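Study both lines:
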Amino acid sequence: MYVPDFLTSENIEEPIQVDVVQASLANVSQKYVEKVEMTFITDNYFNRDFNVEIIFFDRNQIPIYQLDQIFIPANSTNYKTIIEIPSEDIPVIFETAYYGFLIALGPSSDGSVLDPDDVYSLEFKSSLELFLNYKNI
């Protein structure tokens, strides 16, 4: 994400952005999953913090689960956050059709606002890792 993503067409700061991606866990048997981790790696070249909320939606686009908010400090690179899904909540992963990312740009420490000529960026990568246990086959 870049500075223009957080500005309206009149160059007024708009600190909230939403992104939705399709989820797919086809061909994974739920009965063998014993642990699920979501990993987020960010490069924040803005001089401001971000908070990110991740919401899971079912195929009817109804929210069914929400992760703890992720904090991304200003001017941080290769910043890694790992969130483990509690074992009792693992079944919700298999009901998830979409992941929603609500990305909130924090206020500046000096009261300044973004300028369209600023060259800041936020790079956000995420992955879902399933830990399987086939010992009892």
Observations:
- The two ends are 45 Å apart (CA to CA).
- The helical segments are 90-93.
